[in-house]
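User: I'll paste a sequence; please echo it back and then give the predicted structure.

Assistant: Echoing your sequence first, then the prediction.
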Amino acid sequence: MIMKINSQNKTHFFLPLLVASTVLTLTPTIGFIPPTLAQRALDFATQGCRGVPQEAYFMTQNYHINVCRGQGGLFMVVSFRNEQLFDQFPVQAQGNSYVGTSQKASYQVNSTTFIIQPHNNPRPITERVLRMQGNPGNQTPQESKVTGTVTYRQRIALPPNATVIVRLQDVSRFNNAPRTITQQTNPLRGQQVPVPFSLIYNPNDIQPNGIYIIRAEIYIDGRLTWANMNQYRVITQGNPNTIEIIVQPVN
């Protein structure tokens, strides 16, 4: 038996097939993500380190700042408030602040202020911290000091009246004389090299884009006899907080 389909019935007959065919064709292409699996906005206060342990979190008007503990040490992740990554680089804890330098800029953040000092612009970007999570003030004493030894290569014994003076100096301004931040005077009383030193400094005296060096001198009877001729940079811009200073005879 052959059933005849008029034009009106033909439309009603093929329309469901057309819709079904369209749905079957588009479904594999479009796909469907259940609401529970859809990507959600990242909670930077707890997830900004992307699975790496978090040391501290700060939020300003325009930035999320996460301090993370990686296998190689602390690093900072700076993101815009729209969640776009801005910069990532190693940092050091200095007192109640974290400081670090990347190819773009130098950074410093604490419980009140976030500072970006771009390398190509003398004017820093300063923003007030609106939210903080973690305890950046809970630092060990080593993070606010420079330690090391003073020594020389010559096989010469120092007399008992020798004195070692070690200074932490700011040489950021090239046209100015070095500014001494702190110093230690160590009468040797027969002690020989290497002579240990420990310079405790105020973290507020340190700027992330500053240049800081150690100056070591040995005096005998009040006369300068040994000093370092090379520049030993410390603290900022990836330089260490522990260092060996080699001094040479002064004519």
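Residues 7-40, 137-143 have pLDDT under 50 and may be disordered. The CA atoms of residues 72 and 90 lie 9 Å apart.
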